[in-house]
Design brief:
By secondary structure, the chain is mainly alpha-helical. It folds into 2 domains: 357 residues, Na+/H+ antiporter like fold; 135 residues, CBS-domain (Roll), CATH 3.10.580. Helices cover 69% and strands 4% of the residues. The strands form 2 sheets. The protein has a 3-stranded mixed β-sheet. A two-stranded antiparallel sheet has the order 4-5.
């Protein structure tokens, strides 16, 4: 008999199966699932157990690029023009500072440790890139909301756009300085701009097709249209060798601003992108080379250290200079450490263009990615917890049943089905209000109507706490009353937050059980309840949402014994 070879379909089943195990392990040890998928991919890949043939992973490449395209499309769908104007007003400075600090510090740091000027310059440009799939999917996993989450999405988009532009122009400058340009400098620059512009135009056209098609097609046919548009556009980008990441980012932005069904389109794609994302990270994990991390040596460690410092320091300095919230200042940069796709792809381009210059660059990138992809999600998770943009119970949730308890529940449910009775569901258990807390500063009672609207624009609630100078809750603004003022333009100019306040019916304290919140929500229509300190002046700590209470109830319920 000939040597046994695992079929590629079995490889896919193996990867998805180990991802299931990794997801359970991630819950138990409080890891982001993205990190768990990467680690288990590294485990079954060539670096450790070598269970997955390299040629199979290479065949996954179209699916992995499709997964990345869908993530970028989803990211672009977040940027309506009104949101871009609002976010850019306070994030553009952060972006410019973070990009500049990262590129300059990495370039100078590598040059000081013996790296050639050309190599240091290109690595400085590549250091700007942030892995969009890793970063965005961790944010989605924890359902985070707040200024750090919002700024991270904008910074990730700007980082990858800037990385592509900086890399192309840096390579062009190096070739011009070395006298190795095959054509004139002006013509080469025009080619770079044409590729970038063409990529963006293709994305806009693809977005218009999706918006137009979803406007008259039955929703049951949307997924076919979306997959057809994305795969065709991806193929065009690959055929003409133009940056596909810009195409799908612009495709999402176009849909966000030309379709009334943006959220439904994103929800429809989630059915596919969730599965592809799992395959993306575990397959990407198999490509991580632990040996490359060691081979990168001293320059690899210098690159890692200065990239981390550049991203954190850039955001910190810009946020402090522009007086942004301390959450953004202290934790915004920590959400940008992950690095993978764009940097790897561009380092490969560098090897193809100039093997002598590009090979050591690729070695450093491949080596550092092993670390950045593992620690990146961990830093994001820590940042979200520290800033209160994700409830603690959600961040540390893990399966509450042992395998034996789960087996008993399956048997009990089977018996209940035979007897025609429904299994009982318990309360939330040991979860406290502090575990479900989402931090917020509320709306100051002196805020004018425009400031109230600005606060509400990036909120998902229908109830908004109003505070005085001592951060004590004086009442809440409820959306029905606010909507009446929205249509009275003369009144809107005179109204302040304190004029819209209605009495608060109930408050929660951090040390109360989450079951208390569940009881209060049963008698109210509000989406959230303020959480205040017990001691006077009863300072606002945040809010507990109805959706988070229900999420905790569903994910942590146990059968009553």
């Amino acid at each position: 008999m000939g040597e046994f070879h695992l079929h590629i379909t079995s490889t896919i089943g193996l990867l998805l199966g180990v991802c299931l195990a990794a997801g359970v392990l991630a819950d138990l040890v409080h890891l982001p699932k993205v990190t768990a998928f990467l680690l288990v991919g590294l485990l079954v890949g060539p670096s450790v157990l070598d269970l997955v043939p390299t040629e199979h992973v290479e065949l996954f490449e179209p699916l992995l690029k499709l997964a990345m395209a869908l993530v970028l499309f989803n990211l672009g769908c977040e940027f309506t023009f009104s949101k871009v104007r609002r976010v850019a007003a306070h994030c553009l400075t952060l972006s410019v500072a973070e990009i500049t600090f990262t590129a300059v510090l990495v370039s100078i740091g590598l040059a000081l440790f013996g790296c050639s000027g050309s190599m240091a310059l290109l690595l400085g440009c590549l250091a700007v890139a942030t892995a969009p799939a890793t970063t965005i999917l961790v944010l989605k996993e924890f359902r985070s909301e707040g200024p750090v989450t919002e700024s991270t999405g904008f910074l990730v988009a700007m980082n990858n756009f800037a990385c592509i532009i900086l890399f192309e122009f840096a390579f062009l400058a190096i070739e011009w300085f070395q006298g190795s340009l095959q054509v004139s400098f002006g013509r080469q620059m025009f080619g770079v701009l044409l590729n970038v512009g063409g990529s963006m135009v293709l994305g806009i056209l693809g977005g218009l097709v999706v918006s137009y098609g979803c406007g008259f097609l039955n929703m049951k046919r949307w997924l076919v249209l979306l997959v057809a548009a994305v795969t065709f556009l991806l193929g065009v980008d690959e055929s003409f060798e133009i940056p596909y990441m810009l195409s799908f980012l612009m495709m999402g932005v176009t849909v966000a601003n030309t379709s009334d069904y943006k959220q439904k389109i994103v929800d429809e794609l989630d059915h596919l992108s969730g599965l592809l994302a799992v395959l993306f990270f575990v397959a990407h994990g198999t490509e991580l080379d632990a040996g490359a991390f060691i081979a990168a040596g001293k320059l690899g460690l210098v690159y890692i250290a200065f990239r981390i410092v550049g991203k954190w320091l850039g955001v910190y300095v810009a946020a402090k200079a522009t007086r942004q919230p301390p959450e953004v200042r202290n934790w915004g940069g920590a959400c940008l450490f992950a690095q993978a796709g764009a940097a790897i792809a561009l380092s490969t381009i560098a090897v193809n263009r100039n093997p002598e210059l590009g090979k050591p660059i690729q070695d450093i990138i491949l080596g550092s990615v092993v670390l950045f992809e593992i620690i990146g999600p961990l830093f994001i998770r820590q940042s979200l917890i520290r800033t209160g943009e994700v409830p603690l119970a959600q961040a540390i949730h893990h399966t509450s049943r042992t395998p034996l308890e789960q087996m008993r529940e399956v048997v009990d449910r089977f018996r209940a089905a035979l007897n025609g009775t429904a299994p009982a569901v318990s309360a939330i258990g040991k979860v406290k209000v502090s575990d479900l807390l989402r931090k917020t500063k509320g709306i100051h009672q002196s805020a004018d109507f425009d400031q109230v609207v600005a606060h509400i624009e990036h909120s998902h609630d229908n109830t908004y706490p109003v505070v005085d100078d001592r951060m004590s809750v004086v009442g809440v603004i409820r959306y029905p009353l606010l909507s009446d003022v929205l249509f009275d333009h003369s009144a809107a100019k005179l109204v302040r937050a304190e004029d819209l306040v209605t009495d608060i019916e109930s408050c929660l304290h951090e040390d109360e059980p989450a079951a208390r919140a569940f009881e209060l929500f049963q008698g109210e229509t509000d989406d959230c309840i303020p959480v205040v300190q017990r001691a006077s002046p009863h300072e606002l700590l945040g809010v507990v949402r109805r959706s988070d209470v229900m999420h905790a109830l569903i994910t942590q319920r146990r059968k009553n014994k």
